[in-house]
Here is the input.
Amino acid sequence: MRITKERIAEENKPHLKSHTERFDFLSHTLRHAGGEVEAIIDQLAAFQVAIPSWALGAGGTRFGRFSFYGEPATLEQKIEDVGILQSLTQTAGAISLHIPWDVPSDYTAIKELAASHELLFDAVNSNTFQDQKNAKESYKYGSLSANRSAVRKQAVKHNIEVVDIGKKLGSKSLTVWLADGANFPGQRNFQTALQHTEDSLKEIYAALPSDWKLFIEYKPYEPNFYSTVIQDWGTSFMLANACGDRAYTLVDLGHHLPNTNIEQIVSTLMLKGKLGGFHFNDSKYGDDDSTVGSVKPYALFLIFNELVYGMLNNPQNPYPAWMIDASHNIKDPLEDLIQSLEAIQEAYAKALLIDQSQLKSAQEANDVVVCQEILQDAFRTDVRPLLEAARLRRGGTIHPLKTFRSLKIREQLIRERGKNTVASGL
Ligand code: PSV
Ligand code: MN
Here is the structure.
């Protein structure tokens, strides 16, 4: 299904008056305080976040899975779902594929379909955390780090095949998340595992086209519960440096132990020109994959403050790749993704409100109280009218979630696809 611009304009009508009133009040207040309202709206309108193909179906845990029905069963339907998000929010302009779950059968048709929904193909993701049907070697004891060279070879080859698929779609980056590690003390030799990983990543990097980037994720635990080979940003950073200039660390918000200062990690990586990308989600305990901003919105805002600072001051760092990486157990994924996109944009808009030079002066004067006031003043501002203005400017909805419901989109998808379709993914 597709939502036309006319339909959206129609849905916006009843909300326009209230939007204009709230927008005028906010922009007047911000201008009064020296804020550059138009520049902020431009930046918000240009900000696009990729949607992973694996976030569109019901997730689940090892205890169970509850469908919300009408899930996208094919790559075409996943693209269609992201197209819906893009029409409503105008901030989901790309899809990130996971191979082998999303191998296209007709590349031209898939590219045309994505283009017709105004979508680009973001990073492609390899999968060496599951054994594939008919695979000769098993990843039970690791993939890029495995003891046996035949296993490592198969894992490297898979990553290179993923790049080949991405090339045909116009992707420009490969994201590697490695589940490799050990479940028990003594199970593996740490140094051998790390050395094998470095060598394997170097082989993959050598096969990348010259305009591609390699993103290396890190995560402290799960599925291995004693040690993970790429456990933290330092290990990822070290491996990225070993590979070369176009290899970067990718920060996934859920991949930190509780209370880790993620904003400081972001800042360090940007200073060193090595923050390649970002996976948004939220968590209370670990890799919970919750809706962005649902648990720790202030932490998200502080992260965006560092991102905004880095984008202004660190030309050595490329523009980061943005993606949501979440899984949806009890909410409709499309509704959940709309909430996540809104939370991301909200944090970004609030960070854009911060007067960086004022903050710098307060920092230099060691005026700790004013430093906090500057941050919290921005955080407490209700920036939603700015988000609405950015969406309106691009032909999106004032209220994506309300429109999703009033257009009865899930009901239509269930009618079209049936109740019991299942999406491949996590
Ligand atoms: C697993 O933790 C994970 O969430 C990684 O962050 C990857 O990006 C994603 O799954 C897909 O493999
Ligand atoms: Mn991730």
